[in-house]
């Protein structure tokens, strides 16, 4: 067959596979029974090939993801229809013109936005967290339609009508138990920044014998991580002997994982209440915000002074209520992934306030290795570019190096879920935390969300304010004496998000640091994925359940060698 004719046939096949002529359109509304007031937000239309789970639960980075389209709506009135058509931005197919004829299950969701009049003079529309940890699928008050089966045919002209007559219910507040207490305060700093009441919360695990020893004052450890609905991984009762073990977790390739989790939670309770376990406070912070399920525990132009609010408002109140020692030598911080970055950042930005950090699989701690590329040298975040080709950058992998998705795909999914860094997902929160405020009041883009072209001026801002390796290098003369002996980092060398790349660079610096020497610890798990936290003797799916016990011995040793004269080393050792 002649080459030219072959190419023509290939071009024809490509055209037929990506454009289906007259495109379908959808009209979406909500009834007055759900809201009599007009609503702002991101209207999401989801198409799936299966009904279970609901289409809204099927959107993600996996190749099996559902299709999602998004449009911003402003002052949408009850009964008024919003149109989702070829102008809507989609993922993984970008336009409705690319949707093939066939049968689908369709669902619409309105992720509601509220108006914020910030202290900096900007007025912005953002999704307020409502106790769910910034999740558009489950956020209380978000409207959605019941999934319905539809057939899309070639030449469709009649819009498909969807009514969002369902609403996500409120999430109940967790209740105190003998060992788990809850605290919620209004932050003066954050309230002033956002122009409305903003609250911080925490779940506090108190030690055995707390009431029986009123004279005791306790060391404190902050367990950083994503939004915790309650203090998980602690149970006063063992799992039932006949507990169902037929469940299967694909991520870990393990059957009966729910029972494993329940057993580990009970084992932790037994350790916590045993005679020889050190008495201390463990704190999980709730600091969800209009951009994400947590704030990264730092001060940010876009999120406000969350770092100072946590350190100078929430932490002192926790130590007051639960008898913390309240001094830096008796405080520690640890966590994995987002929590790993936060643990190290807290140690770097508040070096005297903590006596050690244990950062597992941290988010990029050097932007010279911002996952798989150098943010400062690269021109494009999505592609490695040469004179004659563009190679997509991988975004996620398994321990064999097999790629799950690309950086571009993850970002395009976020763009479908929300403009102006409002997707509530990973790249957008990095942008919201690290970027300066743009002229429109939203975070300045680190790169064009559609094309991936990097803005070097924004990257330079990131470097000076949030690149932890750069900050340690730049300020080692003053920071070094305050953090030497305190930094512990652990990462699997096959981290799913390539987070080990930045850890390698941090290790190189810490090994060479002088005056003083860093006296740090960096360790890698051979072929371990995200989120390896330092134990090479058990699989990830076990060690991830033992954060609250695995660093205690190192904390005690640190206290022994660094406590000030006259420190209380006995009241909490009963």
From TrEMBL:
<keyword id="KW-0732">Signal</keyword>
<dbReference type="InterPro" id="IPR029058">
    <property type="entry name" value="AB_hydrolase_fold"/>
</dbReference>
<dbReference type="InterPro" id="IPR050583">
    <property type="entry name" value="Mycobacterial_A85_antigen"/>
</dbReference>
<protein>
    <recommendedName>
        <fullName>Esterase</fullName>
    </recommendedName>
</protein>
<feature type="signal peptide">
    <location>
        <begin position="1"/>
        <end position="25"/>
    </location>
</feature>
